[in-house]
């Protein structure tokens, strides 16, 4: 038992010395920066003078030609014309020649067709 206690103490010492020791890192001291705070607004300044009038711009280009217009509607039909005046009566025709006398002595008899 005498040796087991010594052996246990030696083992503990070796195991603790084998571990990595934690390194203590000290952060740098915080730097205090004074931030200026704006004060109250001052009085409004005087109005400035008006600027000079600008020069006239260049004349623009001529526009393009417009489209052809639509065809117009068909016109209305005109009114019927007035009736013309009646013409003059024509001249009387010439008198015809006297006919020839026919042959004499022959009598022609026309017999009607009997009806059925």
Summarize this structure briefly.
The chain is low in regular secondary structure. 15% of the residues lie in helices and 0% in strands.
Keywords, separated by commas or semicolons:
116 residues; little secondary structure; 1 helix; elongated
Produce the secondary structure layout.
Layout: H1 2-18
What would your notes on this structure say?
This protein is low in regular secondary structure and 116 residues long. 15% of the residues lie in helices and 0% in strands. The termini are far apart.
Show unreliable segments.
Answer: none
Distance N to C terminus: 182 Å
Helix content: 10-25%
Radius of gyration: 72 Å
Q: Determine the mean pLDDT.
A: 83
Provide a count of the helices: 1
Approximate shape: elongated
Secondary-structure element sequence? H
Number of strands: 0
- Per DSSP, what share of the residues sits in E-state strands of 2 or more residues? under 5%
Q: Largest sheet, described in full?
A: none
Strand-pairing-aware structural class:
little secondary structure
